[in-house]
Amino acid sequence: MGEEISNKQVILSNYVETSVKESDMSLRTSKIQLKIPSGCDGAVFVKNLYLSIDPYILGRMKKRVPYLSSYTLDSPISGYGVSKVLDSSHPNFKTGELVWGFTDWEEYSLIKDPNILFKVHDKDLPLSYYTGILGMPGMTAYVGFFEFCSPKKGETVYVSAASGAVGQLIGQFAKTAGCYVVGSAGSKEKVGLLKNKLGFDEAFNYKEEQDYDAALKRYFPDGIDIYFDNVGGKMLEAVLNNMRLHGRVALCGMISQYNSLEQSEGVHNLFNVIIKRVRMEGFFTIDHYHLYPKFLEMVVPLINEEKITYVEDIAEGIESAPGALVGLFSGVNVGKQVVVVARE
Ligand SMILES: NC(=O)c1ccc[n+]([C@@H]2O[C@H](COP(=O)([O-])OP(=O)(O)OC[C@H]3O[C@@H](n4cnc5c(N)ncnc54)[C@H](OP(=O)(O)O)[C@@H]3O)[C@@H](O)[C@H]2O)c1
Residue 262: its pLDDT value, please? Predict the structure, then answer.
């Protein structure tokens, strides 16, 4: 038996019906062995450093969402994070290595099946970036934009939830591809960030627009070639009216619908997809991790040469995770929402 230490955890107290509240989660302190117990071959024991707060977590907190497996009640929430290996019985991971991938919302985790765990290769870059630009959101932006939207120089690009973990990268990737890019976000501060720090050509506050269709016509008088959809609902409907011939729509997420997926708003103008020969396709990043090395080859030089920047919203302490998650759904986060559990 290894030494036992205390382990703060964020657990799911009850299944969420519609929108998530902090009281759906609670903090608990339990005990955990500092070493991998016998019989756990292939496991990795880690100290968690950073947690990635992501919108899809809400789906796993609900009881019946067909495309995701629900969390177990009274067990820690799980998700992406950055961790340090303290003990390993897995041939690919060694004690002392830094990793990112699936872990639990707790100080220490025994990861029994580390099939989504990657090594941190570039230790000169901020470790928290492996929850964002160098982790799942970065891969999401890369796969969605370059693989699904096939951008060409001079094309027009629109992205919703543009200041968030994924959206801010779409804008910057679009600029590196020579496109004209407009983003929408939910506050004046975020609109300023998009235009003044992240290099978007234009940006608007969707909460101040009565008529999305008219707003899009203002920014795209000749139409949209590429729409990177993070929000779904009425915005997606308005975009379809404004797509150009042979446009592409990457369906990445539908955060405006996550509180009530069972009664999500309909999109009533799909005929546009036919008459404009639009290619509209959904994707899950998890199906594309084989492209991670190719993605790093592209993105690391862009970061090092300061051709791309990344805005993070850092909350301190594991206790802040429930509030940080709730904040995603009202736009409290400015940039990628990260929780620091411990600094290395
Ligand atoms: N397909 C995949 O594999 C995959 C992977 C990662 C993420 N995603 C999806 O990508 C989208 C963005 O994720 P992210 O991690 O980058 O999150 P994020 O943008 O960092 O955070 C969520 C943002 O969504 C906006 N939002 C919240 N409620 C909204 C509403 N009702 N209407 C419009 N905007 C709303 C808020 O910004 P505002 O202040 O601008 O409203 C909030 O800050 C999500 O839909 C997520 O589920 C998909």
Answer: 78
Confidence of residue 1 (pLDDT cuts 50, 70, 90): low
Q: Which pLDDT value is given to residue 119?
A: 95
What residues contact residue 79 under an 8 Å CB cut-off, 6+ apart? 51, 52, 53, 54, 57, 102, 103, 105
Question: In this predicted model, what pLDDT tens digit does every residue of 112-121 receive, in sequence order?
Answer: 999 899 999 8
Asked if pLDDT for residue 67 goes beyond 90, the answer is no
Whole-number Å distance between alpha carbons of 193 and 187: 10
Residue 86 has pLDDT above 80, yes or no: yes
Q: Which of 80, 230, 310, 329 to mutate to test the pocket of ligand 1 (most atoms within 8 A of CB)?
A: 230
The model's pTM is 0.97
Q: Provide residues with CB under 6 Å of ligand 1.
A: 54-56, 137, 140, 161, 163-167, 185-187, 190, 230-231, 252-256, 283-285, 328-329, 331, 333, 336-337
Spell 173-195 as b/e; 16+ CB within 10 A means b: bbbebebbbbbbbbeeebbebbb
Can you say how many angstroms the Cα of residue 103 is from the centroid of all Cα atoms in its chain?
A: 15
Kindly list the structural domains of the chain, giving each domain's residue range(s) and its CATH number in brackets, ordered by start.
Answer: 4-131+311-340 (3.90.180.10), 136-286 (3.40.50.720)
The atom of ligand 1 lying closest to the CA of 333 is 43
Q: Cα(159) to centroid of ligand 1, in Å?
A: 11
